[in-house]
Amino acid sequence: MFSFRCKKVPQFGLLCVVASIVFAAAPAWSQSAATPASGRAIEAILAEKLSVAPGKVLTAQVVHYAPGGSSKSHHHDADVFAFVLSGKILSGEEGEKAKVYNVGEGHFERRGQHHVISKNASTTEPASMLVVFIANEDARLTTFDH
Length: 146
Hints:
Order of helices and strands: HEEEEEEEEEEE
Number of helices: 1
Number of strands: 11
Structural class: mainly beta
CATH superfamily: Jelly Rolls
CATH architecture: Sandwich
Shape: globular
Radius of gyration: 15 Å
Strand content: 35-45%
Largest sheet: 5 strands, antiparallel
CATH class: Mainly Beta
Mean pLDDT: 83
Low-confidence stretches: 1-9, 23-32
């Protein structure tokens, strides 16, 4: 079981809420949705309007990758925080070196960054990550390349 304590610093309030959700629920999420034999599956967790930022929505999803599964290149109309719940995820944005993220590691993507690689780093074990979007209410969260 994880323990997480937030300092009383206003700018970290939302981050603390997200981190608390992640650490409390990670064991259950990492084993919940059935992932297709190839590719990925998306599990919706929540979508809530933000009281501290009118017109903005926090959306949380878990992406489950089958062994060797991946996503096509894409970009988000949102700021994104991704956190690995199980397995290992290979991820990289255009112009940057791809990196393998392990359980408990995460990274941040700014709105509009071109995400050129996102895949399970293993061909034998499944992987999953919590993805948290902060976007305008009418935003298309993910747009895949053609």
